[in-house]
Amino acid sequence: MKCKYLFFLLLITSCKSFNNDLYEFDPKTLKQDEITLSVIADEITYIPLDNSVTLGEIYNGIRLNTNSIYLSERNNGVLSFNRDGKIRRKIGSKGRGPGEYVYNTIFTVDEKTETVYVRDAREIIKVYSKSGKYLRSFSLREYGEPIDAINIYNSNLFVSFEIQNENNKFKWVIVDSIGNLIKKEERKTPVFSSRVGGLGGTYIYHNRMSYWNTFYTDTVFSILPDLTEEPSININPGEYRFPKSMIIISPTELEKYFAIKQILETDRFWTIKYRISGKRYFVLIDKKDKKTFLSNWEFNGSGGIINDLDGGTTFLPEVYFEEKGHEFLLGLISPFQLKTIMTSTAFKSAVPKHPEKKNELEKLANGLKETDNPVLMLVKLKK
Q1: How many Å apart are CA 29 and CA 46, to the nearest integer?
Q2: How many whole angstroms separate alpha carbon 49 and alpha carbon 147?
Q3: How far is residue 18's CA from residue 22's CA, in Å, rounded to a whole number?
Q4: Dihedral sign (CA 283, 284, 287, 291)
Q5: Contact in structure between 244 and 37 (CB atoms under 8 Å)
Q6: Tell me, what's the pLDDT at 238?
Q7: Pairwise CA distance, residues 216 & 238, whole Å
Q8: What separation in angstroms does the CA of 31 have from each of 85, 203, 236?
């Protein structure tokens, strides 16, 4: 795929309304071009996560609402924090007993009720209250397996399935909070089998949800409020498309194929993290003039948007949310990264847009240990 990962680059043409036009994006036209944080944002704050629970690997999909921060971690399962980063409770627990879950790499939270849904083994959805109490389970295995992604859409549960399973009849289903079927979308992709999957995802922007599995397919789809779907992006096939076959491949070889890691959308921008030819990129696209800003990124959190607000670490968005009429992007940085940059010549000589914020950041970093839990980096976008 010389992949015209057109991605959603243009997912919609207007920020508040859906556009039926299908866009294409050619990565060959992208050149390294950086942007500073002050161009898109006017405020930055930091939320250190409580150290009373030691956090290891944090899985994708941190969730925020007015009162809480939810994240899923390898050893502790799903955790709830308050908006100051103080731990509240574990949501359920890891294990094989009644009401426990073995796997928690995929979870979602109903923003209104804070009901938590965790995808467990054998396509079982475990449901928990915001207090962490186990409520119920239901199976979605009759519709497909493995589950690729889940998200809450208008208080119902959207579930997409990995398309490399030739036995899957449906691309996705929408069920209510107890598992009753509301809508199902039949698979249209020709049948094939492969050993590699789990590379799809979803995102919500205003009253529309989009989903993708561009490892194998050429289209990003958006689901409208009436639960119909329309293509929003076309990715032309090419040499970087993963083969639709049962090949055995090493992690190193896998890296050369095109795959989207994440998409976020704001009123003004799309942000996309993807990999291709063994490298990882972050691209920010202006929806109005389609100008793109491209940089490298790594799993250690390096890369992204240059931080000229306080002179700190670069900003790599992980979450988008709206609150009180404002838009926010949220990133995740390690204390080690933060403390390392404090000692750099670049930081010491930096003259950021908000010098007082530089002093605050330095004070924060000096109060952290390198082994402390990660810090959330919260950026308020300009209107």
Answers
A1: 35
A2: 30
A3: 11
A4: negative
A5: no
A6: 65
A7: 11
A8: 37, 26, 19
* Tokens (6 digits) for 83: 């908006």
Which residues lie closer than 8 Å to 84 by C-beta, 6 or more apart?
A: 47
Instruction: Kindly report the CATH number assigned to the domain that includes residue 302.
Output: 2.120.10.30
**Number of domains the chain is built from:** 1
Asked if the structure places residue 49 within a domain, the reply is: no
Q: Which residues pair with 305 in a beta bridge?
A: 315
Does a structural domain hold residue 363?
no
What is the amino acid identity at position 170? F
Tokens 């330095």, located at residue: 362
Say what the pTM is.
0.90
Phi, psi (rounded to 5 degrees) for 286: -80, 125
- The domain of 222 spans 7-39+57-312
Q: Is residue 44 part of a domain?
A: no
CA distance 338 to 336: 5
Distance CA 45, CA 278 (A): 33
Sign of CA dihedral 126, 129, 132, 135: negative
Q: What sign has the CA pseudo-torsion 8, 334, 103, 155?
A: negative
Residues 6 or more apart whose CB falls under 8 angstroms from that of 345 comprise none
Asked whether 263 and 281 are in contact (CB, 8 A), the reply is no
Residues β-bridged to residue 332: 376
Query: Do 127 and 133 contact (CB within 8 A), yes or no?
Result: no
Tell me the C-alpha distance between 211 and 320, whole Å: 15
Look at residue 148 and give its three-state secondary structure.
strand
CA 343 from centre of chain: 31
How many helices (DSSP H) and strands (DSSP E) are in the chain? Answer: 5, 25
Q: What is the pLDDT of residue 21?
A: 61
The backbone torsions φ and ψ at residue 338, rounded to the nearest 5 degrees and listed phi first, read: -65, -45
Q: How many CA atoms lie within 13 A of 294 on its CB side?
A: 15
Whether residue 317 is contained in a domain is answered as no
């306080």: which residue's tokens? 310
**Residues of the chain below pLDDT 70:** 1-25, 236-238
Please state, in angstroms and rounded to a whole number, the distance separating the CA atoms of residues 276 and 88: 39
